[in-house]
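Onboarding guide, step 5: your first structure request.
Type a short instruction followed by the sequence, for example:

Predict the 3D structure of this protein.
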Amino acid sequence: MLARVLLAAVAGLAAWPANSYALTIVTRGEATQAAIAEAYLPPFTAATDVQVHQDTWDGNMDTLRTKATEAGWDIVQVNADELAAGCNDGLFEKLDWSAIGGKDHYPGMAVSDCGVGATLHTTVLAWDRDKFQATPTWADFWDVAKIPGKRGLAKSVRGALEFALMADGVAPGDVYKTLGSSDGVDRAFRKLDQLKPYIVWWQTPAEAAKILGSGDVLMTATPSSVVAMANGAEKRNFGVQFAGSLYEPLSWVIMKGGQNLRDAQQFLYITGATSLEARLFRMSGEIGLAKNVNDWLTPEQQALSPTFPANANVALRVDNGFWHDNLAKLRTRFETWLAAQ
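The system replies with C-alpha cells like these:
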C-alpha cells in the first residue's frame, strides 16, 4: 500500500525535475528529528532523489530572521504564534496549495496562507493503569486525599494554569475567559497552591516518561506521544485522559527566498500522505494533520491519537493569542510562586 502511495506521489510530481540540492528541514528537538528521519526521509528520498539535512531550533524568532537572510533553512516547523508572526513579517513563502496536496486534504486548523499542518501537539493526563484502574479527571489529579500519590506537571506556566482551573470546576470552553481577569489568574494560582507539595516538575517529555515509568508519580501531565510510545515500544499500561487535554497544531513553513522551493513543495506533498503520517505516529507517537490519517491506525492506536474524533472533541485548543499577550508577566509570577516556600 505504501508503495502505491509513493508511486502516486511521484506521478503527481512528474513535472518537477530532480536535482541534487540538499533540502534543510528544521524541527524543535532531537526526538522529532529522529522520528522524521525514520518515518519520512527514506520514502521521500527514494521518490525524489533529493537528499535532506536536518537541523533544530529553539523557537527564537530572531534566529529565524537570521536564517531567512542567510537562506540556510528551507522548511521549518513552527507553532501558531510563530506562524502568524513570521507570515506577517514576510519570512515565509505564501503556499501554493495546488503544489502540496490541496487545502481539502487538511482540516481548517492545518490550513493558512504560509503554513500547512505538520503535527498536533497534545498534553494529556496520563497514569499507570497497573496502579490505578479508574479514569481520573483533572479534579482527581488534584485530589491527593482521595487518590494519594505524587503528580507530575511541566515546569511551565502554560498548561499549569489551564489544568488548575479545570480541576477547580471551570469548563474547558471558559478557561481563557477566566484567565482574562486578575481574579481568574488568582483562582488558578490558589488551586496550584493546593497541589504544590505533591508536584514533581518535569522539563522535557523524556522526564515525564521517566517519572511515570519509575513510579515517582502516580499521574502526570504529558505529551500524548510519550504514552503512545511507552505503551507501544515498552509495553507499558499507561492510561490517557483526553478530556481537558490541551492541543496545539504545529505547522510546516517554507522560508522565503530559498533556492529549493520545488524540493520543499515535494516534501510537503509526499509527507502529507496519510499513510506516511500514520507511519510517523507508529514510530514516534506524533500524529500528522491530514484528514483520514486515523483510518490507517488500529483501534488501539486510535485510542492514543489526539486527532481521533472521540479524543479531539473533548480537548481544548491552546489560545496562543492569550499567551502572546500574557506570557511574560505570568511567567514572572509563576517563577516567583515556584521560589516561595
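Each response can be followed by summary notes, for example: The chain is about 45% helix and 20% strand.
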